[in-house]
């Protein structure tokens, strides 16, 4: 991996390396969701949720679309799901 690729990988990993962001990704793995539904599912303040969503969108992890006054988010970079699955599997093995 060259330096540029390593820097990009590190940015993507930093973009998801937060408990709320991981929960958001887990929710969006199943389906596209609007901000209000994400806030309700997580039980986290809307301001915090919106901040996390925007950060991941700016890093290319998430995509979004507007429908009237609602903004719907989806996972844009499907590789993130595979990455998190590998890390999760590793953590389960380490616990044994």
Q: Residue-averaged pLDDT, rounded?
A: 90
Report the sheet with the most strands, covering strand number, pairing sense and barrel closure: 3 strands, antiparallel
End-to-end separation in angstroms reads 31 Å
CATH homologous superfamily descriptor: Winged helix-like DNA-binding domain superfamily/Winged helix DNA-binding domain
Output the CATH topology: Arc Repressor Mutant, subunit A
Low-confidence stretches: none
Helical run tally: 5
Order of helices and strands: HHEHHEEH
Q: Write down how many β-strands occur, each being a DSSP E stretch of 2 or more residues.
A: 3
CATH architecture label? Orthogonal Bundle
- The figure for the number of domains is 1
Strand portion, in percent? 5-15%
The strand order across the widest sheet is 1-3-2
Structural class: alpha+beta
What is the radius of gyration? Answer: 14 Å
Overall 3D form: globular
Protein described:
- The structure is a single chain.
- This protein is an alpha+beta fold and 96 residues long.
- The protein has one domain: Winged helix-like DNA-binding domain superfamily/Winged helix DNA-binding domain (Arc Repressor Mutant, subunit A), CATH 1.10.10.
- The chain has five helices and three strands.
- Strands 1-3-2 form a three-stranded antiparallel sheet.
- Strand 2 (62-67) and strand 3 form a beta hairpin.
- It is globular.
- The protein starts with a helix and ends with a helix.
- 15% of the residues are buried.
